[in-house]
Design goal:
Order of helices and strands: HEEEEEEEEEEHEEEEEEEEEEE
Shape: globular
Radius of gyration: 24 Å
Length: about 400
């Protein structure tokens, strides 16, 4: 089931990330380093079952360089480690993970010309995900790497600010391969040839093109922003499932669109914000359940709606209290719900998420802060069959520790 692919591009990106072009080697470069790190410990509860006390570490470092008037180079390294359990949306469903770590290297160049800005960028990210306690780092089924490049164009005008963006990114799962591609020695040759035709191996790998547009305006005392983004995602080695369970020669592609609006207001010492979003994903991929001989077309397409109000109280001594609420409802357009035994019903799957977040930060000394956070999430659905993914659960996490800013 597993295979090893170690991208050689990682070494090149790390080297390029911290290397200055020769043209600027002799120039006077002004460094503006920024750093942040937090070390927290806490517990995770899933349906009242508690995991052991574990730690979480987050950090980023950015030695921003001013190369001259209107020219900035911004390298960033960010790392995250989470030893607490968590529910993550992976491969089309919610999966319980034990440990995660992510490393991201990015480089952005900002060119300012009067009231216009141009920001080309690229990044490389590696995520390692363990589902079991005894799983070694690098062996996770859902480990993935993301290589991306893009550009923002920003125009500041008296009535507001326009931003257009384009991103290309490729996501690779080095350990994830089709079970069918490993089954030739298990089933007879004739059956294998019939089933495996066009099946593919790297079925989760995908390439993406994303276009984004946003407009910000400032009706006193508010700050408003409206946005739209469109993503074309292609799975180059994942064939479309046919009505009889065999694979077609066509490959899977998804079209994702999001519309959003955000409002914010600073009424010192309180900062208020609220965001609403509507998303729509359209996919040509279908599903065939061989154990129940059930074919479902348009299996991954859905519409989702979310609302996210938040409030932060920031005192002069650096103390902060934050509260956030996220509500999201997801409607699958064709995916049918199942009862606890796996029998299909006539209803489409609906899923509702509630996430409540509370955090506090208090200055201890110098640039160090004591920090505490609590998250509580509820997921409810008319889907009762959960042998593969979780649809109905209650989860909570509390974390306490120190944060450092530079």
């Amino acid at each position: 089931m597993f295979k090893n692919k170690k991208p050689a591009v990682k070494t090149l990106l790390i080297a390029a990330l911290f290397a200055l072009p020769a043209a600027y080697a002799q120039a006077q470069v002004k460094f503006l380093p920024v750093a942040n790190a937090s070390l927290l410990g806490g517990k995770y509860y899933l349906d009242s079952d508690a995991a052991s006390f574990q730690g979480r570490f987050d950090a980023f470092f950015s030695p921003t360089m001013q190369l001259g008037e209107g020219r900035d180079l911004i390298p960033v390294y960010a790392v995250n480690y989470s030893g607490t359990q968590d529910i993550q949306e992976l491969a089309g469903g919610d999966v319980l993970t034990r440990k995660r770590q992510t490393h991201t290297f990015s480089l952005k160049y900002v060119h300012t010309n009067d009231f216009n800005k141009y920001k080309p960028r690229f990044s490389y990210s590696k995520a390692l995900i363990n589902e079991t306690k005894d799983e070694d780092w690098g062996d996770g089924l859902f480990d993935y790497a993301t290589l991306s490049a893009g550009i923002d164009a920003e125009q500041e005008r008296p009535h507001g600010t326009f931003v257009e963006s384009y991103d290309f990114y490729k996501v690779s799962y080095p350990n994830y391969s089709s079970l069918l591609s490993q089954s030739q020695t298990v089933i007879d040759t004739t059956t294998f040839n019939e089933l495996s035709a066009n099946a593919g191996t790297d079925t989760m790998d995908n390439t993406n093109h994303r276009l984004g547009f946003s407009y910000s305006w400032f009706p006193e005392p508010m700050t408003m922003q409206a946005g739209y983004d469109f993503t074309y995602r292609r799975y180059g080695d994942q064939s479309v499932v046919g009505s009889l369970g065999s694979f077609k020669s066509d490959k899977r592609y998804d079209l994702a669109q999001n519309w959003s609006i955000r409002a914010a207001r600073a009424a010192k010492p309180v900062y208020l914000s609220a965001k609403a979003r509507v998303g729509w994903l359209s996919s040509n991929q279908n599903s065939y359940d061989s154990s129940r001989t059930k074919y479902i077309d348009d299996y991954y397409s859905y519409v989702d709606v979310s609302v996210s109000p938040a409030a932060t109280l920031a005192l002069k001594n650096g103390t902060q209290f934050s509260f956030g609420l996220d509500w999201r409802r997801l409607y699958y357009l064709n995916r049918l719900s199942q009862d606890v035994s796996g029998n299909y019903t006539s209803s489409k799957i609906r899923q509702t998420f509630w996430l409540t977040s509370i955090s506090a930060r208090y200055p201890v000394f110098s640039s160090f802060f004591a920090r505490a956070a609590y998250n509580y999430q509820v997921s409810s659905s008319n889907m009762r069959y959960e042998d593969n993914y979780r649809y109905n659960y209650r989860a909570s996490t509390y974390l306490m520790g120190l944060e450092w800013e530079f």
